[in-house]
Amino acid sequence: MPIVTVMMVEGRPDESRRAMQKEVAEAIHRTIGVPIDTIRVILQEVPPTNWSVGGIPKA
């Protein structure tokens, strides 16, 4: 049972998040051949105030 965790800045629409989770699961299914219903995709959203790039907060 593969488990994938994706961390990203919060704020994207529900439809985009669902599409991403589906695509990740399908990519794992295609590449390693495990049954799609055994793949877990965990999405962790982080507030922009808690995420920085190069020391600069995304907020």
TrEMBL record:
UniProt source species: Sphingobium subterraneum
GO molecular function: isomerase activity
Domain 4-oxalocrotonate tautomerase-like: 2-55
Matching InterPro entries: 4-OT-like_dom (IPR004370), Tautomerase/MIF_sf (IPR014347)
Enzyme class of the recorded protein, top EC level: isomerase
Protein name per the record: 4-oxalocrotonate tautomerase
Keywords, in A-Z order: Isomerase
Protein EC: 5.3.2.6
A Pfam family hit: Tautomerase
Domain of life: Bacteria
